Amino acid sequence: MDKKRVYTFGNGQAEGKADMKNLLGGKGANLAEMNLIGVPVPPGFTITTDVCTEYYEIGKDKVVALLKNEVEQAIVAVEKLMNSKFGDIENPLLVSVRSGARASMPGMMDTILNLGLNDAVVEGLIRKTGNARFAWDSYRRFVQMYGDVVLGMKPVNKNDIDPFEEIIEEVKEAKGVELDTDLTVDDLKELVAKFKAAVKKQTGKDFPESAYEQLWGAICSVFDSWMNDRAILYRKMEGIPAEWGTAVNVQAMVFGNMGETSATGVCFSRDAATGEDQFIGEYLINAQGEDVVAGIRTPQQITKLGSQRWAELAGVSEEERKAKYPSMEEAMPEIYKELDTIQTKLEDHYCDMQDMEFTVQEGKLWMLQTRSGKRTGAAMIKIAMDMLRQGMIDEKTALLRIDANRLDELLHPVFDKEALKKAKVIAKGLAASPGAATGRIVFSADDAAEWAKKGEDVIMVRIETSPEDLAGMAAAQGILTARGGMTSHAAVVARGMGKCCVSGAGALKIDYATKTIEVDGQTLKEGDYISLNGSTGDIFDGKVPTKEAELDEDFAEIMNLSDKYTRMAVRTNADTPNDALVARKFGAQGIGLCRTEHMFFEGEKIKAMREMILAENAEGRKEALAKILPYQQADFEGIFEAMNGLPVTVRLLDPPLHEFVPHDDKGQQEMADAMGVDVKVIKQRVDALHEQNPMLGHRGARLGNTYPEITEMQTRAILGAALNLKKKGVTAVPEIMVPLTGILYEFLEQEKVIRATAAQLFEEKGDKIDFKVGTMIEIPRAALTADRIASAAEFFSFGTNDLTQMTFGYSRDDIASFLPVYLEKKILKFDPFQVLDQKGVGQLVRMAAEKGRAVRPDLKCGICGEHGGEPSSVKFCNSVGLNYVSCSPYRVPIARLAAAQAVLEQ
């Protein structure tokens, strides 16, 4: 038997139900379920999502042939229930045709109402209803929608007005009326005639008269709309696979435009913006559904409370509100009562906040749709916690209801919503680090620090950033770059600082020499104000007011619940005491990565560091390192103190030395003066440090093994800090990490230096502390030989940023040149620097953990790349048995929730 492609519903019966969402789409499954639980729903049928897949595989004609019998039988079933006939002149049945994917995609696909009308049927509808205005209004709407969606009557270019709206405006102007509802029957007849003439002129074809020809055109158009630009973009944003397809829902029409006892509306069982447990929504009397969402007429509020709140915001007096904009609760009290009962019933049934559409036809209420409503991050938490307290859901459901990524919205400063409506967007980049920032444009780290010292809020604008820009990044309110992706230096460091950052804004032409940005014909100068939305990537002209994010008790409760169910610990990547304190406030259980190089880019430290690098021999290096030692030790004391009692993994110096030396004439001259040598000597030394491929060059363990005195100094600083704090009663738990190990012997050489230095220091101080020595696994060879490395290393930390670079052979700084094409062509499903590649990089992590623990069963394994704060990557880390994930401070709550969800989903 051929498979079933059409599922009917109506009169309390249905062939589908709520758990058939994958086959019937969200709308179809919920229409069936509403029928089964006794909610009034116009009868109809759903064509499955599988048919959408067939449509794109075998084509339109074959799909229509496959569907023909089932669709015609389903129409007969609707005719019986509605006691009318499709295409009949005397007693016509009209239908609506709507899309419905398994994931909610509001407004992304197409809808057609009043299908089945033609010049003869419209007269029959008038005889049947005695309402000529309603019949011609419905016909006018149908021709307009069908012309737009099926016949492609769209504006020729984006600046043109919609061809149908243009005709409506002309007719309204000629008749001297303002609203569509003021048009007479004759005006509406004129509109239909003009619409059809426009269709004939633009398409060369007559408007279809046959009801079935109209129906097949509409069904196929809904399938076509699955691949329209806005649907594709929405799926990309929401991570919805293209292969899911959409269902098509055909339903008997009920009419909200039959006069003053008819209406249409949209409502939510709770406030989708705030999460408040308050029934809210909007409706319009004598209108059809599209009017409410299209914003052609200003809708009125459903509840009296909502109406009063709206009036207050709109500056409307209570008298005027009651007279002109009454709520449904006041204007249609009986209908309101029924709607209120149904919304409670639906929320109780689905145990989630519902987004519903309804129509009132001559005093009878019909429900057209219900779905779990889209909501903000703040509403997501409030609704989950309220429903938990109300006994509607259990703790596990509450945790699984929250999209961990959406917590980001709650942790950073936010723009004032009203101010955003008036703000002018000048360009868009990647939403690299969430938050809201406003400040004056500066083009260098020095200027950022200098301006900030004077109390100015600044946005640091760079073509791209490097570690040298750190001070400027710290001083700036936000960071904007023209190049670089989501894991570029700017993005990674900004997230670590909780700074707002927009990266890769390619439309910006940045000129350091003239200190200007050119974008879209506009020139911005140093000192001009701009605002960045790090959650959307929008760049605004001028100042947009921001406000601090406030975390409430519900947020704290979600975090406590997460800890109750989680197995993995969550640590943070932090290089300063301030970052450490922020992360601890968010619940971090230690530091998984403390990068020591970031400590060298300030004042006297960078001078001493450069002296060390430019020294001729080991003696010169040791002399310079002796100057750095007290600074390093003080930095570590601050971090250990902030993390009192918790483990801190300190990575020894990793970047190539050329990143620390001056590359400009002025900087080189200053260096020469400080060292008392000719500037030529400095230039030669800087040139000698240049590498063709520094990422694979003289860095990490290679640096420590060629200059062991650096490792000695850093070991002394780390353990010296811990010993000093021990005297003060502060417990430091240091873990010293050797970066970029590829060969066991590289690690052994470094370990030997660390252990010998520690023994010497403990003897000098007459005291000692426990510490561990481990390594970063970020080279594929290290993962392949992890059993050998674990014979000496006491812990593994997977540096998945570099491990991804080396496994794929992609440079994370240059991937932006081909990544968009790879994503578009589905060569890659996601950016591997954002979401851990579980099939490749993930298998190296799994293998290394297994091999390492086979040799050392108590081997502690964690991850400290940017992936440590990305929910699907966190869940993978849980599945391979890692002990912890480590991420930037502002992603700690996200990782905590994802780690709990990982356990609950297993």
List the SSEs and their pairings.
Elements: E1 6-10, E2 13-14, H1 21-36, E3 44-47, H2 49-58, H3 60-82, E4 85-86, E5 92-93, E6 95-101, E7 111-115, H4 119-129, H5 132-149, H6 163-175, H7 185-203, H8 211-225, H9 229-238, E8 246-252, E9 263-268, E10 280-285, H10 289-294, E11 300-301, H11 304-314, H12 318-324, H13 328-331, H14 333-350, E12 354-361, E13 364-372, H15 377-389, H16 395-401, H17 408-411, E14 414-415, H18 417-422, E15 424-428, E16 430-433, E17 436-442, H19 445-453, E18 458-462, H20 470-475, E19 478-481, H21 489-497, E20 500-503, E21 509-511, E22 516-519, E23 522-525, E24 529-533, E25 538-541, E26 546-547, H22 553-565, E27 569-573, H23 577-585, E28 591-595, H24 603-614, H25 618-642, E29 647-651, H26 665-675, H27 679-689, H28 701-706, H29 708-727, E30 733-738, H30 744-765, E31 772-777, H31 780-784, H32 786-789, E32 795-798, H33 800-808, H34 819-824, H35 841-855, E33 860-863, H36 871-879, E34 884-887, H37 892-905
Parallel strand pairs: 4-5, 17-18, 18-19, 19-20, 27-28, 27-34, 28-29, 29-30, 30-31, 31-32, 32-33, 33-34
Antiparallel strand pairs: 1-2, 1-3, 3-8, 6-7, 6-8, 9-10, 9-12, 10-11, 12-13, 14-26, 15-25, 16-20, 17-24, 21-22, 22-23, 24-25
Helix pairs in contact: 2-3, 4-5, 5-7, 6-7, 15-16, 16-22, 22-37, 23-25, 24-25, 25-29, 26-27, 29-30, 36-37
